[in-house]
Amino acid sequence: MNVQKILIVRVSSLGDVVHNMPVIADIRRKYPEAQIDWLVEENFVSLVQLVAGVHRALPVSLRRWRKRLLSPANWREVRAFRQALVAENYDLVIDCQGLIKTAWLARMARGQLVGLANRTEGAGFEWPVRFFYDRRVPIAPHTHVVERTRQLVAAALNEPPPQPTDLIDFGLNVPRAAEALAQAGLNLPVPYVVFVHATSRADKQWPEAAWIELGEALVQRGASLVLPWGSAAERATSERLAQALGAAAIVPPSLTLPAVVGLLDGAAATVGVDTGLVHIAAALKRPTVELYNFETAWRTGGYWSTNIVNLGTTGHPPTLQQVKSALAGFGLLSRST
To answer: How far apart are CA 151 and CA 138, in angstroms?
Structure first.
């Protein structure tokens, strides 16, 4: 198949954007000269720009547009977006998300449109999208989100599906991320451990008392703690935890996504709930402990590195001792802690 220009459509959310990244390296292994553009929500453009092999990260503003549907300026912006999108001719347009909104965007682009034929367990999919696509790719229902997209893209390219032993490369530009962190002016003592306590769902959280006890154990072993945040409520939680943990706990300023990548890459370990920042740490293949309160680690948890430990399931949330044992495996705590 002679493919020169490909448009990937995966607009949100943060974790899903991260899990979509390996398809870029997959494509470039087969088609090293291909021009790969990626249509993504404007808030995530700077992250996608870190992915090796992405020619252009094309911003879309669906979240912002929905908030002002009656604004004439809004619809002028939509028209300008469409005009810019149709200016390019693609050999393939691949909708990796499978929602009506993403199929609508993908249909605006010029090129054969390929998408998912069915929903997989726990993943978003809206059946009317099948009427938008020129080709539909069926995926086994019990499929990890990373493998779902890799299989979709391989089928779109008429290539065999990836194998479990195939390299999974997220392609994040670590030097550029480190530069972004340096520009943020953070002077972080090492070693430091990142605590990602924030999640949009309360039922995914880990108890604050457990964060404090874990933090105290790490501080006693000489580690500093960094507690990033993304909203006022999350900042308040970070500050509350930092107050309980003392001077070794650091609440950073608001960081860009590239700076966050630099922060996570420089950490001795990241411990966090099922959310986008933790998935970035796992994508970097850095020591990562992912905390799950549901039976979803099989679907979103990292499996591509021995540095990633997934803990917890439905009815059995991760215990403090399990997390300590995982960090002991990284040499950050003693086995007897």
So the answer is: 9
Q: Are 120 and 142 in contact (CB under 8 A)?
A: yes
The tens digit of pLDDT for each residue in 154-208 reads 999 999 999 877 899 999 999 999 999 999 998 899 999 999 999 878 899 999 9
Place of tokens 């499996």: 303
Backbone dihedral region for residue 84 (phi beyond 0: left; psi -120 to 50: alpha; all else: beta) = alpha
pLDDT digits (tens, 9 = 90+) for 4-23: 999 999 999 999 999 999 99
Domains for the chain: give ranges and CATH numbers: 5-156 (3.40.50.2000), 174-329 (3.40.50.2000)
Identify any residues that bridge with 37 across adjacent strands, giving them in sequence order.
7, 56
∠ CA 36-33-60 to the nearest 5 degrees?
10
pTM value is: 0.96
- What beta strand segments (E) does 106-253 contain? 110-116, 135-137, 192-196, 224-226, 249-250
